[in-house]
Amino acid sequence: MKRKVVSTMLCAAMAAGLLAGCGSSSSSSAASSSSAASSASAASSSGSAETTETAASSASEAVKSGSTAAAGTADASGHTYAIVTKSAGNPYNEREASGFQDTIEALGGTCIVQNPEQATADAQISVINSLISQKVDSIAVAANDANALSAVLQQAMDAGIKVMTLDSDVEASSRMVFCNQAGVKEVGQALIDAVYDITGGEGEYAILSATSQATNQNSWIDAMKSIAESDDKYSKLVLDEVAYGDDEPQKSTDQTQALLQKYPNLKVICSPTTVGISAAAKVLQDQNSSVKLTGLGLPSEMKEYIGDDDSHSCPYMFLWNPIDLGKLAAYTSVALVSGQITGAEGDTFDAGDMENSPYTVTTNTDGATEIILGPPYKFDSSNIDEWAEVY
Amino acid sequence: MQQKKSLWKRLTGSREASLVLILVALLIVVTILSGGTFLTPSNISQIFRNNALTMLMALGMLCVLLTAGIDISITSILAFSGMTIGLLQKYDILRNTFLLFLIAALIGTGCGLLNGLIISKGKVAPIICTMGGMYIWRGLAYVISNNNWASGADVSGFSDFGKDGSIGPYIILIIAYVVFFIVMKWTTFGRRIYAVGSNAEAAEVSGINVDRIITLVYMIMGLLAGLSGALSVSIYASAQPNMQYGKEMDVIAACVIGGVSMNGGRGSVVGTFLGALFYAIVAKALPLIGLESIWQNLIKGIIVLAVVLLNVLTQRAMDRANLERREL
Amino acid sequence: MAGKSGREINAVPQSSVKQKILSWEGGLVIIFIAVLILGAAISPTYNFSSVFREMPKYLCEIFMMFAMGYILIIAEIDISVGAIVCLAATLGCFAGNAGVPLAGVIAVCIGTGFLAGCLNGVILTHFTELPSMIVTLGTQIIFRGIAEVSLGSGGSVSMSNSKMIMPLATMVGPFPLVFFFVAIAAVIFIFVLSRTTFGRKLYAVGSNHTAAHYAGIPVQKIRMICFVLIGTMAGVCALFYLSTTFGANTTTGQGYEMDVIAMCVFGGIATTGGKGNLIGATIAGFTIVCLRIALGQRNINTQLILVIIGLLLIVSVLIPRISEVLGNRKRRAAQS
User: Fold this and answer.
1) Same domain, C173 and C296
2) Does ipTM exceed 0.90?
3) How does it sit in the membrane (chain B) (predicted)?
4) Mutation test of the interface with chain B: which of C156, C263, C300, C307, choosing the one with the most B Cβ atoms within 10 A?
5) What crossing angle do the helices spanning C256-266 and C56-73 adopt, rounded to 10°?
6) Number of compact structural domains in chain C
7) Residue A25: CB partners within 8 Å, gap ≥ 6?
8) pLDDT-derived band of residue C90, with 50, 70 and 90 as boundaries?
9) The whole model's pTM is what?
10) Which residue of A43, A100, B150, C95 could cross-link C108, Cys pair, CB 3.0 to 4.6 Å?
11) Cβ of B139 and C304 within 8 Å?
12) Quick one: C218 and C311 in the same domain?
């Protein structure tokens, strides 16, 4: 008797769980239900899809044959495009995904936005696996780890899915093209120039980074170091330490305070990460420290700390527009799926109303193909209020 | 039976005293390694401010551990309450610092009450119940945040409370520790918590409502976790759904270092304070003594394990000494 | 009720078919089928091949679930397994990159897990006053710390010769190779637990280790064996993890310990020891895996999936209690 009760209750609980699951899914991912429908309709009306494809391929042939004219933006209808961000619960990722989603939907395609539960490669692998099962047409991923995703992305490409990365790259062989928010060298140059400018050309500076394995931060810091070494102009700048705040407010605060204490002659802290720069800004501003801050940060998070006078800790900082990065990734995905580009160097495609359209695929110093959004954008007291409203 | 003990015996004979010795040794090492600049007033205040959350939650964890329970949902409750009040400010619904703290505390108490009821009335093992809670509250924090943070300008007025130089966090800490010290030492409620932890069946027989005590203990834990959520938003001027992720283990470790037994019935407020302080000093000192960042976690783990093992050894020595005295 | 004396040993095999269907495991089978139906209902792409294609990543964790079942049955806990996976995968990757053949990589992964388990076991059997939770918490930080230090500033390593590890990721028909290893492990672990004296001793230790000690059971030896076992299984998990990712980083295995404990608990193993069996845990493990895959294919918010699993966990442990209360009430009503 007792056991019967147990099993019936278990089933009831299960059913309740399912209801909860279904109920929430209808609101959070309405897109996916329509994705199933649209892929079915795409199959039934393959005629129209074919014509788009042939048109697109002839356009890409035109590009290859030496014509400099940009090809028109391809039609996205009938296809499903997915974006996998670094993690849930982060406004930067959210802006990136919203730019992607709006563009795909404006072009008539179906969009799936997936935010992994944690900022780890593990969580992204599960999500990508599930997207492969859903037979989406393209996956754009902002990689949490340069190595660990290569196996699953290779699987996706074997299944005929167009794979591209944005924001943070993986090995070149496991994706078709990388949408780079700004060239690594340009970011490094901008940051080291900011340090040079704020220190007045000489003095000590320190770097507060995210985690020790953050691919982007590491490459920018390396670029800063190599630029500083190669040019005599920066010879009077001394890098005291690269500290890691792990993108946690508490640890970033501890590390900033430790930097201030360990290096009394410190003039500038450069923090190329959103969490780090706002934690450091708060420490410096609260203490009325003479040490100044620069780096990369979201305007909406940094509004309070940016200003020219001594009561603000950060004279200026840089970032790119994450919404635009998402948009560019969307246009790239569409172009990849339509066959307009293959991710080879020299491919050109039109990106709607975007500033630098048409974009061209280039090759970076490591021989990997990428599309660069543009130079990093400078935020100072004159424009911070305006941009803080946007992202 | 009371006889005059030698100073050495008295120091090694009490857990708190031996912990003080370890702390002093640690401070000396750190001071030497950091070139004599560790114990400055600003450093000391930063130690307390940056670890106020761990210190506050350690008190609740003390009560939970005393009843032979455990609560691993605390940082999820912290994130949920912190995110809620962060969003209240972001969308300009409420700006009153006191009310915000109150709301955070209420949310925490509610979550704690649920934990307590499921554990006491539902007879669910504490680690399982709070593990479920850990997923649920953290998940809800993400869901309500809708991928947004509340930070900087959003919480500008509120963050003055926990600003560097403001005495807000210290006052909360002092009040909490004084209240807990008194309650745990001199009130029947405090005694009852110990009784339940030492032997729940005996406590039940002697007329203590065990279920109620257990429910209350988890409510207190929830209350402190909720308060910590508000405090965290105020100190770091930011509310993010992943805040303090995984830090519940730090809180438990701080308690255990402070001599609180995970089998229930043994532990004190003073010990908890020393344990939390120990943890705080290690966290503050590691970046200061010029250790490379990637080594810091490894060293921290070794220190934690070493102190826990040392605790056992001193406890054994104490037991042996007591036994010898009895035999005399 | 909650006292140690009242704990029953649940290892007695049940005979009647009806009882089997209505037992906890029977309920789990029904839920498992319900999850499969749900998956097919909400996702058009949820089918045999897609589930098995997505499964290897989760199957790695199931290896550890068996050993975690043993650990929970003797009333212990091990939260260092995720960190052991990280360390073993990292060292295995380094070994592969240094030119060691596949057999060597296998040995390094499993050996690392074995040694890590030994360390946990040695500390716990020599400092018996310490709860396993706090010791494995300490070693967890240390194991991950060692991995962090050996990974250096990049924090990530990839298999330079991924072809070498590929044989472990092959598909045998529609089934991934790892599935067969899990099946073999399941048979062995379930057999040892339910049909050997060693298995009985685990229940005895978990129910009351003082009594077990006086009954002549080598309690400390059994604890040691269990912790070495789970370390070794974490090493096996790391090996197959490498075969699905070709690399490791500092976040590898994060949260695995909680996933695995949740599977065991959902499968009816009590964390207070002495209760439950691995058949239930195995079904529960596959149920959670299939549920995650199904919800994932429906693109449900990943955080919401965690909320659902958390609710499932609490509800599943509450049910026996609720049915007990209801049963008591009914009995009382019948008596009056």
Assistant:
1) yes
2) no
3) Multi-pass membrane protein
4) C307
5) 70
6) 2
7) A32, C42, C295, C298, C299, C300
8) very high
9) 0.85
10) C95
11) yes
12) no
